[in-house]
Amino acid sequence: MSAQSVRPSTGAPEGAPGAARIAVLGAGSWGTTFAKVLGDAAVASGAPAEIVLWARREEIAREITERRTNSTYLGDIVLPPGIRATTDVAEAVTGAEVVVLAVPAQSLRSHLAAVGAALGERAVLVSLIKGLERGSDMRMSEVIIEELGVGADRVAVVSGPNLAMEIARQEPTASVVACEDAAVAERVAALCNNPYFRPYTNTDVVGVEIAGIVKNVIALAVGICDGQRLGDNSKASVITRGLAETTRLATVLGGRLETFSGLAGLGDLVATCASPLSRNRTAGRLLGDGLSADEVTAELTQTAEGMKSGSAVVDLARRHGVEMPISEAVVAVLDGSLAVDRIATLLLARDLKPEGK
């Protein structure tokens, strides 16, 4: 029996009257965890839901469906009833009211053709992806809108201090659901609201996305500080000035200043820069230890989005005349044009000026 045809033995019956059908594309740590969040929210609310995870690898799809675990990414954590998996994108998306995208940023566009072929006319797209597309410098919501020809009112983004393993262990956290249409943001928030995951809504899609994108680059810088054995003063300075340069870029692009004092801004930045669970901080530490970008990629089991999106962040900033010295220094280390032991002098390399600028 193929992974596509396996059905869960427990949970809401497939196609049950009133059951919301939700597709989650990407069965890595965050995609699987968010499926769990949705499943637990359905149980908590008493509203039946059928959640279909798309996995690239058949063995992962089979394990999720048959055992309700994804040991590759979440260990022995058990997923709630109502979740099954498939390796067929069309099967996952067909009939879904909400399609959640949790694939690597640089491969999103290549997946969207299959999504579009099966997408319902009123389905809402939700991006969990924190990256910019290299070459176009587009945010993920922009890629979705362009590739699928949908309106911005059908595209939401979820961002915040959301370290997947902590959430999978049901450690309390809050997040932000952003959409230009407040009603759509509220609908998505209702689907993922449960006792340990508290979503807030926002209409500042630009600000929320840029905050989630650039914080990964700043976390690389903090990790580099760790690898270079720099102290807490250095890391605190990088985090604070990193937030400032993130805010400069976002506001030029139309983001709202208040977003950056909230969960999607400061909250996500602190979690990603401080936690040993952060892939980007870990990648930065390996860079700081002297590994090349290729060696770091080989060492990691999951994508560190900051390594992929950093060059696009810097390119976007240059096109808009925004100074981002921390991001510039990180990208220079990644592309090999700057020796990592020289980065300390460049992380805060700006002309003297008032702190708020």
From TrEMBL:
Pfam families assigned: NAD_Gly3P_dh_C (PF07479), NAD_Gly3P_dh_N (PF01210)
Transmembrane segments: none
Reactions catalysed according to its record: sn-glycerol 3-phosphate + NADP(+) = dihydroxyacetone phosphate + NADPH + H(+); sn-glycerol 3-phosphate + NAD(+) = dihydroxyacetone phosphate + NADH + H(+)
Top EC class for this record: oxidoreductase
Glycerol-3-phosphate dehydrogenase NAD-dependent C-terminal domain residues: 204-343
Annotated PROSITE patterns: NAD_G3PDH
Subcellular location field: Cytoplasm
Chain residues that bind NADPH: S29, W30, R56, R57, Y73, K130, A164, R279, E305
EC code(s) of this entry: 1.1.1.94
Main location: cytoplasm
Binding locations of sn-glycerol 3-phosphate: K130, G160, K215, D268, S278, R279, N280
InterPro entries: 6-PGluconate_DH-like_C_sf (IPR008927), 6PGD_dom2 (IPR013328), G3P_DH_NAD-dep (IPR006168), G3P_DH_NAD-dep_C (IPR006109), G3P_DH_NAD-dep_N (IPR011128), NAD(P)-bd_dom_sf (IPR036291)
Pathway connected to this protein: Membrane lipid metabolism; glycerophospholipid metabolism
Domain Glycerol-3-phosphate dehydrogenase NAD-dependent N-terminal as annotated: residue spans: 22-184
Active site: K215
Sorted UniProt keywords: Cytoplasm, Lipid biosynthesis, Lipid metabolism, NAD, NADP, Nucleotide-binding, Oxidoreductase, Phospholipid biosynthesis, Phospholipid metabolism
Its biological purpose: Catalyzes the reduction of the glycolytic intermediate dihydroxyacetone phosphate (DHAP) to sn-glycerol 3-phosphate (G3P), the key precursor for phospholipid synthesis.
Family per record: Belongs to the NAD-dependent glycerol-3-phosphate dehydrogenase family.
Protein name per Swiss-Prot or TrEMBL: Glycerol-3-phosphate dehydrogenase [NAD(P)+]
Taxonomic source organism: Nesterenkonia aethiopica
